[in-house]
Every structure is written in structure tokens, then in C-alpha cells.
């Protein structure tokens, strides 16, 4: 079924794949370098009409550069794009106009929609407003054309709805419909990490919509580092690694681990860095001290109510639940960033009377927040300064910050956590998402916390960095630190945690341990309304 | 849309382009010291330009240029503190006017001794800073608006108090001397300015306080979540800027030989221009003390040179405005091309 293409495809566009599907578009021999550093090396792949072809690769694999070359934003040094019935286009002189002409339609991660405008207005901004007498906007006409377009895409959305009010998956579909709105030549839809900002349960809805489009003959190039999506959605997959094509495979023959290893270029043992997809019996169940490290009784705050929770030394406890179930609020309340309305928090046997971030930190509580960009990174600052910011007092001598010692610490951390950076003085924004996350984790590990709170620790983190982070979390837990992980990635919780607390609508819906820690159970309690705890 | 596109280069460059880092370092030096080199170039130019060379290089001119920057540069340094933590303070110049009047009035109208007058002058600045701090840091009102408010209100109060009459009687002679005489060939005020600059530079770049202040300015939410007392630091920064503006006011009294009703408040834009100009140098992308002082020097030197070379009266203003726009444009574009700090950084996942 799927095309089987090798890295050295000759790029002749009129070729047809085994099953007789015509090639929709072929890219061959793309090279691109910045100075002496080569970012793309002889990259070739083919897209089959009506198929979903995934482009997978870790951070730094050249994935984004390749997309930018195809969009005409970055110039390749060489390379050819060919379509059946057309002469090949030299990618070295490719522009956004060329990309449009070639039928390439891009939807980027942030969708490019104006959230406070209506669906129809969003369409009009790319297609133009239909004009009536006196150049006024012909609103009715606009709404009609938009309506019929939405109908074509089987989107049950009104043209007059404000985009912000749409559910996330519908927003993505609206962006896709907009990209494909003009009936140009044969179009190829390029989706760049479309699910990165979608809540977990919305992802399936979007993927289902995409499959439907493909069955109707839409060719899709799907860029993602989410293994499960790639495997469930794509017909074939091209894996990029270090700027070259590591492999092009039929997606059906692959499992997640194989795909991850292709991306990493090395054996990963298992995806989660543990001894195997959790046979929960083998999972260490630490004895813990007689007194729990953290004890919450009837804890309530905005969005959570009556939470009871106990964490013992060296335990990794998971916090599951849907978006809005109160996971983040609970972590923030424990960290002193949200004032509890009622209930008690006891830390190592001592009641926390006046909760504050400062008091929590003094007690040895650390929080890696959910939103890295908004709540954790100091964007203009170096890797070093981002690592030492929570431990600055250590580097002060006679009122002066001893920068050389800060840098030494950072250099050690960079080695230790395998952070990919040009050096300790590199601006932190120039790191990949996974490496930024390692920086934030390292910042808190510097304090040798007694209780580590992790909020979505691997969101937007590539699979290799994930494994590194899991490994580190296990190591600190083994050394006696208690860990509370909130995550919407259920697999992650199952692999990492000995015990999982499921929240639903701000309350504890279930507490699972031992054999009960499974994807099925967690999902069941996350959604279930029928049974009360 | 542009958010993703701008952020993309940042994501890959770290691993994809290490060799570019070397050329990057060279251009980083260029960026860091660009303004300093430009200043040297301007000095060299006017020193050899026949029309200005003799007068420009004379001791008298050097002294007068230095003396002229004293108040502006202290105001610029004052403004760096709130800017470092992400807040504007448009009231620094008006505050210096108030301090200058208070300092002169305590001597003239109340026969106070010089030290008392100086303390009152600086204290007035601290007081204004406190008012700003309460409104901005504690009540979380918009600093941009609030300090424009204080900057408008204060000169009005000065007019009311003085009835529009300058205070020149009874100003202590040692203070006047401090404003007009030299030590070791340099204007006395410049020594004070140098001391203030050094202390503030050290505080902002080499202490934990300065680092934390910049952290608040960089990302207040993240700063709070690493235990940095955001409110207290913002409060402190505004009080500091008020206090420094108070010092600038005392220098102003010394330079003018009294409290002049129409002096000082007009220094706001030159001071802010110097800070923004300075943010393109020394520690590019950050409001910094040395950059601010280099910025004031650059403006003062070019104005002096242009004037001595016989340029028409409108030229210095156009020159300074253009210099500011070009400097900020060049440094911002460079940073953007590097995929640098500000490129799409604020794009959030939600």
C-alpha cells in the first residue's frame, strides 16, 4: 500500500508506487547548510495521492528547516521539487509564491487564526472580503460562501462563531479548511505539529478528521514527533535524523519503540527508560518513612475541593485527570503559589501555617511548572542564569555574584543531563524544547528538593530528552526525593508512577496503586461519572 | 503565524550551527561595543574636522561637555532600575525638578544647613519614588500611566509652591562650587556621577539583587515561581529611581546655583533616549547602566561637536533622534536575525 522509497530516490515524479497510487509530489536531493554546518543532507521523499505521509524526527533533526524550505521561507542550497506533469522546480530559488503554486498548503502549530474574530472573518483575511456596493463588505455573501466551505469539510461550525469559542480540534479543522479553501491545482496539506497545543482528548477528534480528508483523496504531509499519532495516522513515515533521511517506512510495520530508535539513532531500551512497559508488580514500591513527606487533608482552593493526599519519601505519585480537573491548581497550592481556601497541608509532620512560595522552597519543595515559556524560562538570559536562578545565594561572596562558579555549575549540569547547547552562555531560547525543559528541571534539582512537583514535565519534549528526564526523575526518587507528577500523558504516568491519583472536577476520583495503575483504569476514572470514588 | 516561524530557527540552531558560533561571537563583540566605537569615531571626527578641532579638544569644552551630562546621566541611571524589572518611570525628570526646588528652598526659605538641604532634596525624591511604588507595585496600577501622571503633576506643584519664581538666594556657596568647579581637572559633579554609576553598575550586574531585578523584567511569572519577591523588588526599584532622581535634583541645584522653576523636567526624553540607546550596547538587549552612560556621552559629545562645527540649531536634535532610531533598529534586527532572545519568545502554548 504505502510507498517504499529510499533516500536516494531519483525524484522522477511520474513514477507510481506499487499499488498504483500516483505520486502527488516528490522532493529530492535537498541540501542546506548554515556556514560549514550542514542542516539537511540529500533529503528525498515522495507523497502518494490520498495518503498521509509523516515526517518524524527529534529536535534538531532538520524537520523544521525542511518545512521552511518547502514553504519557501528558507532557501535550500540544492534540491528539486517535482509534480506529475510539471517540470521540476529548483528548491534553491523557491519562494512562498512557488510553494503556493505547487499546491502546498501549510497549517502551522499555532494555526494562524485570529481568536477574537469570527470564522467567516478568518476566512476572509486570506481569501479577501467579497465587496458590495460602495466597497462595503458583503457580509451575507461572505457567510454563505464560508458556510458552504465548512459544509464541504463536514465541519459543524457556524460562520459567525468567534474562533475562540470553538473547541480546539474544530479550530484546527477551521485552519485546515481555510488553507485548502481555494480550488487550486492538486493540493498537498502540510501540517506542522498540529496537535502540539491540543488537549489530549481533542487530538483523536482532529486525527479522525484528517483520516477522513485523506480517504477523500487529500494528500497530507504530517510533521510530528508524537509517535502514537504518527503510527495511528500515517500510511508511511520518513524519519529524519541529523539532517538526513534515516529511513522511509510503511507505518504499519512499525511500533513506537522502533520509530523512536530510528529517530534517536540508538537503542533506547524502552521509551520510558525503565525496565519494560510496566509490569506493575515489578514496579518498586518504596516503604517510605513512618511520617509522610506531604499530607493534604480536605484541601480546597479555586478549582479543587476536599483533596486528601499523602506522599511518602522516595515515592513517585502520578496526578491524572482531564484538562481543568485541578491538577495544576493542586500542585500550585502545595507550592504556595495558590492560597488554599480551606484544609490543611502538613510537610514532614509539620503543619504549613502560612503557605507561600518562599516557605515552600525553604522546606524543600520544588515546582516545574506546566507552561515552560510563560512560567519558567527567563528568555533573554543564558542557560547558566536560568539554571542558577533558584540558588543564587550560593554564588554570592562579599555581595558579589561569582559568575565563574555559576558557569562551572552550569557546565556540570549540561554534561550531566546531556543538555544540547553551544555552551553555558547560550541564550536559553535558542535551545530546543526538550533541552529547555532539562534546564528548568536542573534548576530545581540544584536545590536537592525533598518534594519535586512536576507539571506536564514532557510536554513538547522530544522522545530522547523524555527518556533522559524520566531517568533523572527515577534517580532522585531512588535517592529519597518524593515526586508528584501531573500529566495528561497517561502512558507516562503508568510507566513512571507507583501510585496514581485521578482527579475529576477538582476532587479525587480514584487512587490507583499496584496492578490498578493502568491506562484503562486511569482513563476510566478520568472520564467516568457513574461511580463516586 | 509568525510566532512559530520566528521560534523555529531558535529550536534548531543550537545543534545545527555550532561553527557559526565563532562568527557569532565576533558580531556579538561588534554589537556590544558598537556604540562605544561610534562614540570614539564621533570624537575622532570632530577632533580632526578643521571647523571644530581646536575648540572641540580644548579643556574647557571637555569640562563643559562632562558637566552638562551630569544630571542627565544620573537620571538615565535612575530610569534603568524600574526598566530592568519591566516598569517605566517617566517621572524621574520631574522628580529631579522637585528635589532641586526642595533643596534650594530649604536653604533659601528655611536657612537650613547644606547637609540638611541635601538630605531634604534626596528625601523628596525618595518620597516621590515611594508614592510611585505604592501605586505601581502594591496597587498594581500601570506604571506607564501612573508615572506620566506624577510627571505631569509635580511641575504643577512646583509652580504653585514657587509662584513661578526661581530660588537663587541663600544657596550655599560650597554647593555652588561643587556644581561649577573642578577636582583634578574634571568637574566636581562628574566624580559624584562616576561614583553613582559605578555603584549602580555593580548593583545591577554583579549582585543577586540586580540579577533578580532583571529576572522580574524578563518574566515576572517565572520569577515569582522561583521565589523571587516580585512586588518587593518592583517597589524597591521605583524607590531607588526616585532617590537617584533626588540626587540628580541636588546636582541640578548645584549646577544652576539655585532652584530654577523651568529646569530639569525637560531632561526626561534625553535621559530615556540615552537608556534606550544604551540598551543596544555593553549588554545588548538589556537596560544597563554603562550603556546608559555611554548613551548620554554619545549624545552630549555629538551635540557639542555639531554646535562647534557650526551646524544649524536644528541639526543636533535631528542627529540624536536619528541615532536613537537607527541604533534600536539595527540591534533589534540583528537580534531577530540571530533568532535571538526576543524572537517569538512570548508565544505560549495555550
TrEMBL record, chain A:
GO molecular function: ATP binding; ATP hydrolysis activity
UniProt keyword annotations, A-Z: ATP-binding, Cell membrane, Membrane, Nucleotide-binding, Repeat, Sugar transport, Translocase, Transport
Top-rank taxon, per record: Bacteria
Keyword Cell membrane: yes
Transmembrane segments: none
Listed Low complexity bias regions: 1-20
Disordered: annotated segments: 1-22
InterPro entries registered for this protein in UniProt: AAA+_ATPase (IPR003593), ABC_carbohydrate_import_ATPase (IPR050107), ABC_transporter-like_ATP-bd (IPR003439), ABC_transporter-like_CS (IPR017871), P-loop_NTPase (IPR027417)
PANTHER family documented for this protein: CARBOHYDRATE TRANSPORT ATP-BINDING PROTEIN MG119-RELATED, D-ALLOSE IMPORT ATP-BINDING PROTEIN ALSA-RELATED
Protein name per the record: Sugar ABC transporter ATP-binding protein
Organism name: Actinomadura syzygii
Automatic annotation (TrEMBL), chain B:
Molecular function GO terms recorded: transmembrane transporter activity
Alphabetical UniProt keywords: Cell inner membrane, Cell membrane, Membrane, Transmembrane, Transmembrane helix, Transport
Biased composition, class Basic and acidic residues, residue ranges: 1-15
InterPro entries per record: ABC_transp_permease (IPR001851)
Source species taxonomy: Bacteria, Bacillati, Actinomycetota, Actinomycetes, Streptosporangiales
Topology of the protein relative to the lipid bilayer: Multi-pass membrane protein
Residue numbers spanned by region Disordered: 1-21
Cellular component annotations (GO), alphabetically ordered: plasma membrane
The UniProt record lists the keyword Lyase: no
Protein name: ABC transporter permease
Localization per Swiss-Prot or TrEMBL: Cell membrane
Transmembrane segments: 35-56, 62-81, 88-107, 113-136, 143-161, 181-204, 225-252, 264-282, 289-311, 317-335
Principal localisation: membrane
